[in-house]
Each structure stands twice: as structure tokens, then as C-alpha cells.
Write a structure and sequence with these properties.
8 helices, 182 residues, Arc Repressor Mutant, subunit A, mainly alpha, Rna Polymerase Sigma Factor, Chain: A, 2 domains
Length: 182
């Protein structure tokens, strides 16, 4: 998309053009959803939080505070804030999660338990990282963005992103301990 197309789309959104808003949703929802899913690890919750991002977009546009030019950056930044807010609430008021359905016995109960435990350990360790460290890991590994793209999203230079990523991975390794990659 050229800068001119992006500026027109931003103008159409600011005018609450339904077709432009639908196009933005169609173009960016899956990317916002993947970002949120990587951070929260729950599909249903990720759908809810990703939808909240677009609700905030509509509210911001209605109130004259919408994105000026970089819609994608605004959406990912808003998703980051929503996930961080959710994690804070969850940390303050932890809930016991019950499985939505019976486990699929196809791979075997032991392997499913192991996989869930590994996922729980990684999620718990990730929750102890700073929001900025969580954000950089989500952009780099959850979304697959390059260092340059991540730096642009975070308004940092590439070396700062490299250092932040290194510190985040080191903190995860310290928290999790040795990992067996069989």
C-alpha cells in the first residue's frame, strides 16, 4: 500500500466511512489476533482482546483521536496496551482456569499434560518479564517481524531492540532454567 493509499484510508476512517473501516478490519484483524494470541496463549481470549482493539479504534476515531498515518502501528500498539492491562488484572485477581472440553486422547494424555505444563511454565515466566520485554518477544517471535520492523513499531533503534530481546531471552532462560529440546 502506498503512502497515498494509507493516508486516504486514514482519512476515510476518520470520517467513519463504513467501507474503509471494514477494509481495515479485514486487512489487519488476523495480524492483531496472532499478536494477542502469542501474548495470552488462549484462542477465545485472543479473539475477545483483538476485537477490543478494533472497538477502541472506532471509539478513538469517533472522539477525534484515531491514528494519523500508521494504522497498523496504532493497532499493534493498542493491542499491546490491552494485553498488558489484561495481564495486570489477571495478576491481581488470579483465576483457576477450567478446560473448556475434555482433552483429545489422540496424542496420549501424558504428552498433553507435558505440553500444557510446558506452556504454563513459559506463560508464567513470560508474565514476569517487563511489558516492553514481552512486547519485543511477541513482535519478533510471535509475529515474525524483522529487527527493523520491530524497532519501527517500538520507536527504538535496531541495536536497542537487539539488546532488549537479548535481556528478555536471558531473563526467560533464568526463570525457566535448562530446557530439554529433544
Amino acid at each position: 500500500m502506498s503512502a497515498m493509499d494509507g493516508n486516504q484510508k486514514t482519512k476515510d476512517i476518520r470520517e467513519l466511512n463504513a467501507q474503509a473501516i471494514g477494509a481495515v478490519f479485514d486487512q489487519y484483524f488476523s495480524e492483531v489476533y496472532r499478536y494477542v494470541l502469542y501474548r495470552v496463549g488462549d484462542q477465545t481470549l485472543a479473539e475477545d482482546l483483538a476485537s477490543d482493539v478494533f472497538t477502541r479504534l472506532l471509539e478513538a476515531v469517533r472522539d477525534g483521536r484515531g491514528p494519523d498515518s500508521n494504522i497498523k502501528g496504532w493497532l499493534i500498539g493498542t493491542a499491546s496496551h490491552i494485553v498488558t492491562d489484561h495481564m495486570r488484572k489477571k495478576y491481581r485477581h488470579p483465576e483457576m482456569e477450567l478446560p473448556a472440553s475434555l482433552p483429545d486422547l489422540e496424542p496420549g494424555p501424558a504428552s498433553e499434560v507435558d505440553q500444557r505444563e510446558q506452556s504454563r511454565v513459559v506463560q508464567a515466566a513470560s508474565a514476569k518479564l517487563t511489558p516492553e520485554q514481552q512486547h519485543v518477544l511477541t513482535l519478533r517471535f510471535g509475529q515474525g517481524y524483522s529487527l527493523e520492523e520491530t524497532a519501527a513499531f517500538m520507536n527504538k533503534n535496531v541495536n536497542a531492540v537487539k539488546a532488549l530481546q537479548f535481556r528478555a531471552l536471558a531473563a526467560l532462560q533464568r526463570e525457566i532454567g535448562e530446557v530439554d529440546y529433544e
